[in-house]
Amino acid sequence: MSTTVRNTKKYNKAKLSLLSLSVLLALTACDGDDGIPGADGTDGTDGADAPIIVVPATPVLTRLATVPAGAEVTGAFLTDEGDLFFNVQHPSDANVETDKVNDKAFNKGTVGVLRGVNFNNLPKNVVSSPVPTSDFERQTVVSALGEYQILGQTNDIFADLGDKGLAKGLGVHYGIVTDEKIIENNAPDFNGFITTGEGEGYLFTNWESYPGGMSRMKIEKDDFGSWSVKEAMMIDFDKVGGTAANCFGSVSPWGTPLTSEEWIVNTTVDSTTSPSWNDPSNTNTDNIEALTAPDFPNPYRYGYIAEITDPTSAEPVVVKHYTIGRYEHENSTVMPDRKTVYASQDDTGGVLFKFIADTPEDLSSGILYGAKLKQDKASSEPATTGFDVTWVEVARGDNTTIEAWIAEYDGIDEDDYDTGRSSYMTLEDVQAWANGDATYPSVENGGSTVTAGQPMDDRAAFLESRQAAKMKGATAEWRKLEGISINHDRALEAVGKEEAVADEDVMQAFMYYGIADIDKTMIDGEGDIQLSARVKDCGGVYRSKLEENYNISRIDPVVMGGTYRSSLTGAERCDVNQLSQPDNVIVMKDGRIIIGEDGFQENNTLWMYDPKSK
Fold it and tell me: Is the whole-model pTM more than 0.85?
């Protein structure tokens, strides 16, 4: 229905002039005796109703929950039934308070769920949970909706499950050959749920450390929304040389968890894998050495997206997809076409990558691309500045060929370390590849001892992916490019033109990016990204509209943290009621987004935000 509003501007202006004149005459006239009151006049006709003015809603952040002191919010995952899982990563071991739901302290890595609420059926307006003020609130999970239920904590063995329990402990990692305990991991990250029926399924959880891993718990929900664990296990990565720094992840459209190996990759924006990897004096790799002992670890066996195939079987099978490249993987997400994959590099000077598989549901071969950005002209404010995106082809590859290149670095150990030379790929190696040289450079010309003088191949694209993409022209300037996410059903309906979301005609869908820090290579005044330092470590969230064939050609800001207050210290540097280093983001079925913080607030927050109100 439309409403026609009469233009009363001239009329009101004349009316005000007559009124002013009458007031003036009244003020200048001499006072006289009051006359006899006249009779009341007849009532005038009712005027037209005033026009209804609709004021657009102001975009707001809703605080869904806060996590205990010392913890990050990780592992946000929303199921088709509306269950929201998230984790309490590395909380302070000084936390001692317990709540009535769990009767456990939050002083070690915790996997859990907000029970008793369907997050796929929320009201439009949700009242935020409070900023914690008491010791109890600071040391527990405080939520706006539901109750946080602990499903498992670091080193839990689930003794009541008998042989279906986990005798070696949840999140505990052991040597592949020695079977000796290396670390009790307090850093659960990604969660992914594979349903096996209504109210039941398998919850997969990443454990982010050196070494790392992934757990699987079979869980069931009762009629009141409370969950129970029926089985627990750690996924076996031994056949792929183990795993490390398992950060965020996703579940593929065909129902397989994808885990991301992040900071095991020892590179920088200006270097390839550090020659110090096999330096006997380097202690940073001690836990990885313990993982592979008595063999010395090959760095090129880590830093990939690993797919958990046969995920609900007694023995799930791990497949590392070297094709998506080697870098500090935060996350990858597969589009509804089941072959286009976007992947983020969480590092200073990172690249946004895209991989297009040759065959749907098979990530073992395809083409790797890097994003080239062009910043909006004459604009540097993070809240309003976006980027045009084009794609630079890096190389085509397949797992089998790449694995053969990786195997050439097996057997290299500390005895092969030579100061001033590298046992691994060098910048000169990658540059020769990018230049199209016929052979790799000699050791004297800066080449690696492994490939010196050999015929050129494409290993640089998949073993040193950042440098390869950068030398081909991609933008390597993101700072902590964190989780990327879509809502599969919204994307399928908007791009794939298949009815997937009830009660809504989805005309456009977006992919969202969390950026924890907008600093360093994003504000250095050089290259493709030259933003101001206003937001800095408070971070923000960006998004891209999904276009035909699930391509993206544009990245725009959605919501930013407040102004970074460099004159202050600690949590005060970022407004507690705004974003503070957003880590990962997930997209709800109704288009709202959920954002988890990895910041320096005393109690990091799980936020909800409605981009439709922008």
Answer: yes
